[in-house]
Design brief:
Blueprint: H1 19-43, H2 52-64, H3 68-78, H4 88-99, H5 114-127, H6 135-147, H7 151-163, H8 171-183, H9 187-199, H10 208-220, H11 224-231, H12 245-257, H13 266-278, H14 282-294, H15 304-317, H16 321-333, H17 342-354, H18 363-367, H19 371-388, H20 401-413, H21 420-444, H22 460-463, H23 470-490, H24 494-508, H25 516-532, H26 537-549, H27 554-567, H28 572-584, H29 588-606, H30 608-618, H31 623-636, H32 644-655, H33 660-675, H34 686-701, E1 719-720, E2 728-729, H35 732-748
Helix pairs in contact: 1-2, 2-3, 3-4, 3-5, 4-5, 5-6, 6-7, 7-8, 8-9, 9-10, 10-11, 12-13, 13-14, 14-15, 15-16, 16-17, 19-20, 21-34, 23-24, 24-26, 25-26, 26-27, 27-28, 28-29, 29-30, 30-31, 31-32, 32-33, 32-34, 33-34
Length: about 750
């Protein structure tokens, strides 16, 4: 008999030659060729064409004869999307069949398939996929898998020790398991081991040399996180210093607004915006320009104006839409040292529109088109300022032409009210609303990438608190798909990854905590995969999602989604996502057409979210038409749905011009829904609630505005009779039409 290998379990030599020994020999000899042929069909080897049906037929034959490797492979095929829909119950059945056998043969040879099946079952119990989640069972299966010399089991056991899943946290044991798996060239274990040494733990000193060593080995095995860690030089620097330009910009924004209720720190905001701007991040350049123009006084930085304009211009040239709009206004009003130039103003305005900024040209804007009219307007403004005692000499910082004209326009607007005090309150509310719009506008231009904070905000442990609710169960199912996809990606099984990510995004995209640094490399993997599998619509869908998060041109995602729809015209998820992309690119009517198809496919009960999306698109250009969709959403959506309060606030806005009582009712219902929102969800942005409240206030003020004196005309009046100053009109035309009747009364007065 062959010499026993060191490290294997001791053998009871008395069993050699027994009936059990003979049975094992028979099974191995009888099934070896069957399993080999099954692998050839599964992987397309030895001249055989890939054929999963034939592979499964042979695996079934060997599994029935007791071969654990065949049983394990059946579990893999049933549990993945490689051979049709996932059948998790059958997968668990065959994994259990394999794990019912000992880890080793009597001859001390590892029983191939058994430790692998233990690792697979551990993963199922860890994520709750196909079985009730049980971390204790997961830990036991990982442990048995590791004892069977399986590197995946060792690596997962290491994760359990680090995170305390089914066992107390034990970092030394985790290092032991990771090291064993890493020495077997397991890239995930190599990366995790590097991460431990890079961060340091209580009792484990930080060791950059060891961390870099293990990261390098993982990178050599194409582990993307390790490649990114080395490429970005994360090691040897503070977390903030090693962050991406986007993270620096976010940190700058946090300091600008005030972190955790603290006062804003302009100095720190300036520091982080400057660092991000050096990396040519357009948003950072834009925020830095705003900081110089609005929040840094001249006595602190004498060149603040020139610096601010420079950064705004840099951001505009790098296609930042807010910067393009602002630069257009600089040229339109001749502000901040820029000579008035309508041609340049319109050019930058067009670019901003192309990049998704909603722009409504006002009467004030049209008055500014002609240089002669603009000069006349400035003279009227100057005359009004002198009468009100408002001059630059009274201001600590120079006031822009744009601001001067806005003040003048607001003063004129106040005349529309019978009560001057009401007019002042209305103007104050309008200014409040404008500020809120400026705060919220950047977030409306692009979808937010999945959560990138510390830890997994939507981990299964956190989602477990919401089990047995409609929303919670959907999020848990989506998270399970995402985690399985992550495993497939680590194993290089791209088809399995695509299937799981597609279903995760389809169910609930917010739980897919894809690290930002993985979007680009995984996109390249998907592109290569699609070249070989051009008819895989799910892969194109996932690539489209990644392209949006990478802020690539909208046309990239739309082109991919068009192909998805052609390949599978009955898949509602394709219409929903394509509609979403169109809505973000301001093609609202086209978006509504896609949402119409999704609604027809799903119906009200299953498609309540499609009704929400269609209503949200209608809100952009015909708000009252959104009410019908929103009412259907309210009828069928679970009360805990994360969009519930937003819908109620939108409905309040719809009703503000129709029925103020209903508008107030829905606003209050929105506040109640927001108070009951699941803590795991981000709250509705404060600016959104404040904007809704502000618009309702303005609508209530409008009831006190003067109406035109012409019978049947309900328009707001802002032109008074120049003789009596008592009768008001909405236009010169109505004033002329009414003069024959009014002059008799006016003459007496």
């Amino acid at each position: 008999m062959a010499k026993l290998k060191e490290g294997w379990l001791p053998v009871d030599r008395s069993l050699v030659g027994s009936a059990e020994w003979e049975k094992e020999k028979y099974v191995m000899e009888a099934t070896m060729s069957i399993v080999f042929e099954a692998h050839c069909y599964k992987d397309g080897l030895r001249g055989k064409q890939q054929d999963y049906a034939k592979a499964m037929e042979r695996f079934h034959k060997a599994a029935d004869m007791g071969n654990p490797e065949a049983q394990y492979n059946l579990g893999v095929l049933y549990g993945s999307a490689i051979n049709g829909p996932v059948e998790s119950a059958k997968a668990v059945y065959y994994f259990n069949m394999a794990t019912s056998q000992p880890l080793f043969y009597i001859s001390s040879v590892p029983r191939l398939g058994v430790p692998q099946a233990h690792n697979a079952l551990g993963s199922y119990y860890d994520t709750g996929f196909g079985v009730k989640r049980d971390l204790d069972k997961a830990f036991q299966h990982y442990k048995l898998s590791a004892e069977g010399d399986e590197p995946f089991g060792m690596s997962n056991l290491g994760v359990a020790y680090v995170e305390g899943r089914g066992t107390p946290v034990n970092i030394p044991k985790a290092i032991e398991m990771y090291t064993k798996a890493a020495e077997k060239n397991h890239p995930v274990a190599q990366y995790n081991l590097g991460s431990i040494y890079a961060a340091g733990y209580p009792g484990i000193e930080k060791n950059i040399r060891l961390a870099r060593n293990w990261y390098s080995k993982a990178a050599a095995n194409n582990h993307w996180l390790a490649l990114v860690a080395l490429e970005k030089s994360f090691l040897g620097s503070s977390p903030a210093e090693s962050d991406t330009a986007e993270a620096m910009c976010m940190l700058g924004t946090a300091y600008e607004k005030g972190i955790d209720g603290q006062n804003p720190d302009v100095e720190q905001a300036l520091h982080w915006f400057q660092k991000a701007a050096k990396q040519k991040l357009p948003m950072a350049q834009f925020r830095l320009g705003l900081l110089y123009l609005n929040k840094i006084p001249t006595f602190v930085e004498p060149k603040r104006i020139s610096k601010g304009v420079k950064y705004i211009r840099d951001a505009a040239q790098l296609n930042n839409p807010q910067a393009q709009l602002m630069l257009s206004e600089f040229y339109q009003f001749g502000d901040y040292g820029n000579k008035r130039d309508i041609a340049k103003a319109n050019s930058w305005l067009s670019k901003a529109k192309e990049n998704g900024v909603d722009i409504t040209r006002t009467i004030l804007d049209r008055e500014c088109e002609s240089d002669i009219e603009f000069e006349k307007l400035l003279r009227r403004v100057q005359k009004w300022e002198l009468s009100e005692g408002l001059t630059d000499s009274n201001a600590s910082e120079p006031v822009t032409n744009q601001e001067r004209i806005r003040r003048y326009s607001s003063s004129k607007f106040g005349k529309r009210f019978n009560d001057p005090e009401r007019g002042k309150e209305y103007i104050e509310e309008v200014n409040t609303f404008i500020k809120l719009v400026e705060e919220i506008q950047p977030s409306l231009l692009h979808p937010v990438a999945p959560y990138q904070g510390i830890g997994d905000r939507y981990s299964l442990d956190k989602l477990a608190a919401y089990a047995n609710t409609r929303v919670g169960d959907i999020m848990i199912a989506a998270k399970q798909h995402y985690l399985r996809g992550d495993v497939f990606l680590s194993d290089g099984k791209i088809r399995g990854f695509v299937y799981e990510l597609f279903h995760a995004f389809k169910l609930c995209d917010i739980v897919c905590s894809v690290p930002m640094q993985l979007f680009e490399p995984v996109s390249h993997i998907l592109q290569d995969y699609i070249l070989e599998n051009p008819h895989d619509a799910e892969a194109k869908f996932v690539l489209a999602v990644f392209s949006v998060f990478l802020k690539q041109p909208w046309s990239t995602a739309l082109s991919l989604m068009d192909e998805c729809v052609k390949l599978h015209p009955q898949e509602s998820a394709f219409y929903l996502y394509r509609g979403n992309v169109k809505a973000f690119s301001r093609r609202y009517q086209d978006a509504i057409s896609d949402f119409d198809v999704a609604v027809q496919i799903l119906g009200p009960k299953n498609g309540y979210f499609a009704y929400y999306l269609r209503g949200a698109a209608k809100m952009k250009f015909m708000p009252p038409m959104a009410l019908l969709d929103y009412h259907v959403y309210l009828e069928h959506a679970p009360l805990e749905d994360r969009k519930m309060s937003e819908v109620l606030f939108d409905m309040a806005l719809c009703y503000r011009t129709l029925d103020m009582e209903k508008a107030t009712e829905f606003y209050n219902r929105g506040l109640e829904a927001e108070a009951k929102r699941f803590p795991i969800f981000d709250p509705v942005d404060f600016s959104t609630i404040a904007m809704t409240e502000s618009m309702l206030k303005m609508a209530s003020f409008s009831r006190h505005m003067r109406k035109c004196s012409i019978s049947m005309c309900e328009q707001i009046a802002d032109k008074a009779c120049s003789v009596c100053k008592k009768v008001w009109y909405c236009s010169k035309e109505h004033q002329k039409a009414h003069w024959k009747q009014h002059k008799l009364v006016c003459a007496k007065k």
